[in-house]
Amino acid sequence: MNILVPTDFSLCAEYALEAAKILAGKTNAVIHLIHVVEPTNAAKSDYIDKAMVVKEIDKNKENALILMSALHDTYNGPTYKIYVETGNVTEVVKEYSDKIDADLILVGSHGSNDKSNLYMGSNAQKIVRNIKNKVMVVKQSIKNLNLKEVVFASDFNTADQPAMSAFSKFVQAFADKVHLVYINTNLFYGLPMNVIKDVMKDA
What we know:
Low-confidence stretches: 114-119
Oligomer: single chain
Number of helices: 6
Order of helices and strands: EHEHEHEHEEHEH
Largest sheet: 5 strands, parallel
Structural class: alpha/beta
């Protein structure tokens, strides 16, 4: 099993890494920790000295590698690999998810540049929406994964069946009971109840 953890060294990113360590301990997974140095919009301007931009990016990558190596040196547990790349965060995370055949992406709900009052940080939102893989968003510190009950909320469209099956297999090792909650997003034109029940049965 491969777990991909994008980090910007924020507190929520630390929470995501904590959760990854717990999961890896239970599943013998390999943790892949990645930091992406994303060039600013100013760096893309024709009026900016490109040599200075490259120098700044290289410096940021060097600093990130030092921080990640320090995390690696103090970590005692399942196999742990680190990567530092340059580019768009979502695109690089997607590329690495495909490259390592990630079974799960663990991401902090807010990064170092996100406002704490937002529902979810911008990079976390983009990863959830644009990467077709299992993604777990971590909002707070997780000390264990001895979950008693888990909720899966959906409108139970037949298109959600693969996601439900994957979710069901994933939580079996951690949860005693799973609650399926039907969310009716269209009061008058929702799916017939018999279709909903059939989808829920196959979860």
